[in-house]
Amino acid sequence: xxxxxxxxxxxxxxxxxxxxxxxxxxxxxxxxxxxxxxxxxxxxxxxxxxxxxxxxxxxxxxxxxxxxxxxxxxxxxxxxxxxxxxxxxxxxxxxxxxxxxxxxxxxxxxxxxxxxxxxxxxxxxxxxxxxxxxxxxxxxxxxxxxxxxxxxxxxxxxxxxxxxxxxxxxxxxxxxxxxxxxxxxxxxxxxxxxxxxxxxxxxxxxxxxxxxxxxxxxxxxxxxxxxxxxxxxxxxxxxxxxxxxxxxxxxxxxxxxxxxxxxxxxxxxxxxxxxxxxxxxxxxxxxxxxxxxxxxxxxxxxxxxxxxxxxxxxxxxxxxxxxxxxxxxxxxxxxxxxxxxxxxxxxxxxxxxxxxxxxxxxxxxxxxxxxxxxxxxxxxxxxxxxxxxxxxxxxxxxxxxxxxxxxxxxxxxxxxxxxxxxxxxxxxxxxxxxxxxxxxxxxxxxxxxxxxxxxxxxxxxxxxxxxxxxxxxxxxxxxxxxxxxxxxxxxxxxxxxxxxxxxxxxxxxxx
Length: 511
Ligand SMILES: Nc1ncnc2c1ncn2[C@@H]1O[C@H](COP(=O)(O)OP(=O)(O)OP(=O)(O)O)[C@@H](O)[C@H]1O
Ligand SMILES: [Mg+2]
Hints:
Blueprint: E1 2-11, E2 14-25, E3 30-34, H1 39-42, H2 44-54, E4 63-69, H3 81-92, E5 103-105, E6 108-109, E7 115-116, H4 121-130, E8 134-136, H5 139-145, E9 154-155, H6 160-168, H7 197-209, E10 213-216, H8 223-228, H9 239-251, E11 266-267, H10 275-279, H11 289-292, E12 297-300, H12 308-312, H13 315-320, E13 322-326, E14 331-335, E15 339-344, H14 363-370, H15 375-379, E16 383-386, H16 392-396, H17 404-424, H18 438-444, H19 449-462, H20 466-483, H21 490-510
Parallel strand pairs: 3-4, 5-8, 8-9, 10-15, 10-16, 11-12, 12-15
Antiparallel strand pairs: 1-2, 2-4, 6-7, 13-14
The chain binds adenosine-5'-triphosphate and magnesium ion (MG).
């Protein structure tokens, strides 16, 4: 007889339904798994046999065939252990065959018959709900799966025996409860930074509109410090964003203890990161740092030290908000709606442009270093600022600096204005100016006559690309939002243009 159990294979952050068919038939005692299994799935044979043995069930002296349908969809990961084991138990009559019909099953087996947590419990639960089914998953993944909705039937046993007893009615497994991770209260605070008022202002603008930011300055001026304080001024994730972000972290197996947090992701990959680490992919498709930073910040410190190919691979996600990875026989995509923040020195010795300093290798020093960042990538960065060395006066006798909580208040108010505006315009999924479409921003950021004249002059003189032109408008819109103004004025445009010019000035200084 053939027993059938429903499970999922992950493609991107979606769970595609997979039917596990187990047949026990006449033949030499053996177990075969077919249906494009990867190495982890193929090894499941050993774990299933050992776990059944440990649970007091002997393998039948017959031929066992396991088919994972659809046969042409690649199956990756260890979460197929449990559905295979349950299919086998149903085929042997150890659990009622119809007990599994209403469930999607995922889970990895230990050799002693206990269940180990698997990645992807949250998207699996959401997928199961979409099919009108419940979810059976390991106890350690239960808290995460419970986030998918209060109405979903979730059974999260510790072991195969507990699950079998549950189906026999001799033991009741209670539904797991969703858990939230307490946010650490001691985030680094902006008040720690002495001086750097214009850099702090730029950080606030970037946070308010979700704009990409590049900080250029000599060593020890506080660039890494500034970036580390960005999480303290960003608003928390909304409920919908929280679920999206958690799905990606769930697939990557990065939800510790299945607990979710409403803090915006802040990812800081090292500059030795490979393409697979940053964009995703590798032998087993996994989301990369760019996707793990979805709805949050991707901070690339020492920007030019990243490999140029890896940096250029960010161009497409920065524009489209998703990372697309081509595999041998299919393609997967992960959401990557990110705010890019980068920091760099102006040249290899780090001091180009500082008063009284001359680089050992002359202007080539800065030119070669900055050439590692391609023009198109630079074009995607809306706010470029110089972060000069802190003056002695600021260091020794600093004026009291504003605390992160105050800045966060202004950022939250500006974001609320943006959210309301886009909701009124019938685009409730756009939340920040940075994500606004070009047609909408032309409408919402239409400047007053003085601003228009300034924009026209600047666009001609600085030869903005079309993208650059729209990005200036977006930053100007954010500045007006921070100001609480409905119309973008000349003053907002002037500041927005100055943020774009800082990069151009750098290039001119080098030439
Ligand atoms: N504006 C500042 N206020 C207070 N302390 C500062 C400031 N700037 C730098 N520092 C001190 O210098 C240290 C180094 O700062 P940070 O790592 O941010 O420099 P950086 O600009 O990132 O340098 P690099 O280019 O070498 O990465 C900080 O840990 C802090 O002690
Ligand atoms: Mg640094």
